[in-house]
Amino acid sequence: MTFDKETERLTAGVRFGLGASAADIDAMGDDPRGWLAAQLDETPPAPEAAVPPDIQSIAKPFFEQAVVARRAVVQNDVEAAQKARQARRQAGRLMNSALSIASVENLAAAAESSFPFRERLIRFWHNHFAVQSTSRQGKVLLPFFANSAISPFVTLPFHQMLTTVSQHPAMLLYLDNVRSTGPNSPLGLSRNLGLNENLAREILELHTLGVNGGYTQKDVRELAEALTGWRIGKPTNEETAWRSLFRPARHEPGGATILGQNYPDKSERTAEHILRDLAKHPSTARHIATKLARHFVDDNPPEAAIQKLERCWLETEGDLGEVSRILVGLDEPRTSLFSKLKQPGDFVLSSLRALDVDVTPMLANLAVAHQKTMGQPFLDPPGPQGWYDTAADWSDPGSLARRVDWGVALASAAGDRVDALAAMERNLGAFATRDTRLAIERAPTRQEAAAILIASPLFQRR
Fold first, then answer.
1. Is residue 333 within 8 Å of 15, Cβ to Cβ?
2. Whole-number Å distance between alpha carbons of 294 and 302
3. d(Cα 49, Cα 53) in Å, to the nearest integer?
4. For 187, how many CA atoms within 13 A lie in the half-sphere containing its CB?
5. Looking at the structure, do residues 254 and 266 belong to the same domain, yes or no?
6. Domain check: are 149 and 189 in the same one?
7. 117/119 Cα distance (integer angstroms)
8. Residue 218, domain member (yes or no)
9. Domain boundary at 335, 361, 378, which?
10. Which residue has the higher pLDDT, 417 or 334?
11. How many domains does the chain have?
């Protein structure tokens, strides 16, 4: 099917991108599909450390003082315990400030990215492998999870991302694999320790096969046993802090049988072999093809689109670059433009990009605050299932009203520098309603015109 230039441009900038900036329009020129495909050809960045060295240095005193305080309590040294607690509070303030800055920088980087389609893929996979900050260590890991476990792999074979994520300190901590010990391992036998199945269950139910993917409770247990031994280094240890470690003394001995496939025990490599097979399983292909189509095409994705993605997944054994190329070539995103309600995070980013504002730290902080009021706290999903992806999840009156508040706040922060009419043409084009167009044209100030655009019903959609 052939589409007109405007439909192609809007599909690239609004549906597959994060909102069309002037730079996006210049970059795509007369070839919006080529612009999208070129982003898939970019050399993947090297995986970063789970926690950057500068953040490790800032965080270390916080955890060290906890150890000092506990030791002082055991020794009944009240004065030393109080000093340690005071030092820990001060270290905690410095650590929280650094982590807050890192989180805000994440949002600003996405808002100003020259590769918005790639950024959208990162956000999709980040949500697919959702992690929360349910502990102090988790809070330190969370802002850097995407750069260390997601963004380097969005165009590579899926098994690479799956393995990296499953063994990442943030995931091991969040889904309690650090508490899981093989019952028949040396430590399991000597200390009467046992399995925690959380990570194994979510790998099968959410990350690969899907809830109806054909696995059983026995498969969950077998995978949990294969994952035993993977832990993380203590933040106070110079050599192993914030790293994934394999501890053989905690690993359940013996092989595993999952979905009828036998895996002889190879210790730390056992889980890797299982994950590679799960990544290319037909149920995984179907599960993830459906999620991709729901995110990029429609809340109720057409079967034809799902099948094309599924077929590519099976033919390439989950090559994410090839699957994404099929995705951008689908007709359905172009025939269903503006059918998807933007999640609050997408709405915030598309507003910043549409108005071409300079995302200062102050504005990025404002964006993070408003996104939270809309019901989607930045980098803090509601659980391992991630954020839901249909209009019904985001269209309650209160949340929609707070989108208007964000539009007013953003327009006020942007001042007279924005051109709302140009932003409307880039992001709505001929789809803009007559009422929206007239309201923007007749607005008494540029700020009011920008607020009208951001609050307009069509701008809420992609």
1. yes
2. 9
3. 8
4. 15
5. yes
6. no
7. 5
8. yes
9. 335
10. 334
11. 4
| pLDDT score at 400 | 86
Q: Taking 90 as the threshold, does the pLDDT of residue 411 lie above it?
A: yes
Helices (H), ranges, 297-433: 303-316, 320-329, 332-335, 344-354, 361-373, 397-414, 420-427
Token pair of 236 as six digits: 């106070």
Same domain as 286, residue 273: no
Contact criterion met (CB below 8 Å) for 84 and 68:
yes
Whether 287 and 358 map to the same domain: the answer is no
Predicted confidence (pLDDT) per residue in 307-340, tens digit: 999 999 999 999 999 999 999 999 999 999 999 9
User: Per the domain annotation, does 164 fall within a domain?
Assistant: no
> pLDDT per residue over 195-229, tens digit each?
999 999 999 999 999 999 999 999 999 999 999 99
Instruction: Using alpha carbons, list the distances in angstroms from residue 280 to 90, 157, 162, 274, 286.
Output: 48, 9, 11, 10, 10
Q: Provide the domain limits for residue 389.
A: 344-460
pTM, to two decimals: 0.96
pLDDT at 415: 87
User: Which tokens hold the place of 31?
Assistant: 């070839």
For the stretch 11-27, pLDDT in tens is: 999 999 999 999 999 99
Q: Is the pLDDT of residue 144 over 90?
A: yes
Distance CA 290, CA 377 (A): 25
pLDDT for the residue numbered 191? 95
Tokens of 147: 């750069």
8 A C-beta contact, residue 77 and residue 34: no
C-beta neighbour count of 215 within 10 angstroms: 24
Is the domain of 364 the same as that of 453? yes
User: Which residues are bridge partners to 230 per DSSP?
Assistant: 246
Q: Looking at the structure, do residues 26 and 58 belong to the same domain, yes or no?
A: no
Q: 336: which 2 tokens?
A: 């269903």
Confirm if 206 and 175 have CB atoms less than 8 A apart: no
Q: Classify residue 316: in a domain, yes or no.
A: yes
Cβ atoms of 254 and 208 closer than 8 Å: no
Q: Does one domain contain both 122 and 78?
A: yes
Region 27-42: what's the mean pLDDT?
Answer: 96
Both tokens of 179, joined, read 């508490």
CB 418 within 8 A of CB 450: yes
Statement to judge: residues 315 and 369 lie in one domain: no
Would residue 106 count as lying in a domain?
yes
pLDDT of amino acid 176: 96
Instruction: Cite the DSSP H helix spans in 236-302.
Output: 270-279, 282-296
pLDDT surpassing 90 at residue 265: no
Q: What are phi and psi of 231, to 5 degrees?
A: -135, -175
